[in-house]
Amino acid sequence: MRKSLQKFAEKCPFSATSVKTSVPRRFSEIPGPLELPIIGNIGNFKYAVRSDSKTIEGYNHHLEEMYHKYGKIVKENLGFGRKHVIHLFDPADAQIVLAADGKTPFIVPLQETTQKYREMKGMNPGLGNLNGPEWYRLRSSIQHAMMRPQSVQTMFFYFLFILRYLPFSQIVSEELVKHVAKEQVRFGHVNMQKVAGRWSLESAGQILFEKSLGSLGDRSEWADGLIELNKKIFQLSAKMRLGFPLFRLFSTPSWKKMVELEDRFYAEVDRLMDDALDKLTVKDSDSQNMRFASYLINQKELNRRDVKVILLSMFSDGLSTTAPMLIYNLYNIAAHPDAQHKIQKEIKEDPTSTKLPFLRSCIKETFRMFPIGTEVSRITQKDLILSGFHVPSGTAVDINTNILMRNEVLFSDSPHEFKPQRWLEKSKDVHPFTFLPFGFGPRMCAGRRFAEQDLLTSLAKLCANFDIHHRGEPITQIYETLLLPRGNCEFEFRKL
Ligand code: HEM
């Protein structure tokens, strides 16, 4: 967690306890679309299929439209007993919500279907689906595994993280360069939809299973199958989230399909986890030399089931996020030759450096322009006053980071343009809760360090070896639980 931001949040003059304002308006007065009995607002998506913003795939456009129509706080009801969700489009409200998080923030699971599936199978729901003390126990062990030892200062933690995990990122990035070169020769272009997935699977293998999975080598077909399975789960999950949730009442064809997909996915991942854990249990070894999974399996407080829950959560969350981010970054780099040359120059000047401030600012700008998620969600644990309205404890709130990060008012300097320079200039008074690609606080993305390091290392290696060009129609985003690339993901990599 960014300490400075945390302090900023704690000192927040608007936090619920310190708010001194006129009487807040009632919850029922929060603006939003007209609700129908039982189905609430869910019909918005199901029937109105003519414009992009009214389809499930255009959910992000729907959010944008609601912001323009109703303002910075909007109430929506997903129907069928799911109560209201409050959409927030103001960083000051985001700050109030996150400042009130406490030690164990509560969230709404990203995929209700995955939570239901795991419960049905008697599995632990996993990190992103848990709340309360069980979440805290598992989450704490991840922090220890990533940032041990505990007794040193924060900056030193980060240094230790790099020292321990950077070599594995580098191995994967070198394999990626070889794989890309081969694909380029074979097909005359590289389909990054496939290659980025193989890359993120290979990286997960190094950290979570502590071995090469061969995804960028002789097992690329196997990797493609697993990635495709995961993609289908995300696609179907989005439809079930925003469609009529009849699967809650009985076993619908969609639910049966979901169970079949999840069964196949878990059978594969279970095999990977069992193989890894059988090999990684060691006696009397120095925990300082252990990688992520072997550290976990050798902790007395964690049993094998706990470790599997953690690995599974990290695996499934990581697989679907870093791969699209690699594609978005390559797209921005290819579409902006000036930026590409600047990155290449920066690397040439100091080939072993991991600082690379300009490349880092390009990655940051890509997070801003192509956020992978539509929101950071929380269930409030206190009564709060948001945009002057009373929001009771126990309400689901979505901080719509994807809108915040491209907002014309908040980013007055060409918010729809790729301008990495903006991150190198002195802050132009952008509210710190405007840019939250990894969320915030104790619940912030558990894989953030891995993701950032993998992106930086691999993009640096690709830019150092190739001139990168994008082919065909521009890449945009489509909502499939996450905001995934839509458009042509074929790139040309010309050897430098
Ligand atoms: C660029 C890639 C990624 C982005 C943008 C991203 C973003 C996020 C966000 C926004 C959250 C919710 C945070 C909050 O509620 O405050 C999250 C949670 C999570 N992420 Fe990531 N993530 C990425 C990659 C990864 C990777 C590589 C892993 C695993 C290796 C991972 C594992 C997780 C887990 C386990 C959670 C749930 C944490 C919890 O509830 O305690 N993520 N991520």
Automatic annotation (TrEMBL):
Give the matching PROSITE patterns: CYTOCHROME_P450
Binding of heme, residues: C445
Cofactor(s) needed for function? heme
The root-end lineage is: Eukaryota, Metazoa, Ecdysozoa, Nematoda, Chromadorea
Name this polypeptide is given: CRE-CYP-44A1 protein
Give the Gene3D superfamilies listed for this entry: Cytochrome P450
| CDD domains assigned to the protein according to its UniProt record, in alphabetical order | CYP24A1-like
One GO molecular-function annotation for this sequence? iron ion binding
Family membership? Belongs to the cytochrome P450 family.
In which domain of life is the source organism classified?
Eukaryota
Q: Which UniProt keywords apply?
A: Heme, Iron, Metal-binding, Monooxygenase, Oxidoreductase
InterPro entries linked to this entry: CYP11_CYP27_families, Cyt_P450, Cyt_P450_CS, Cyt_P450_E_grp-I, Cyt_P450_sf
Q: Which gene encodes it?
A: Cre-cyp-44A1
What stretches pass through the bilayer?
none
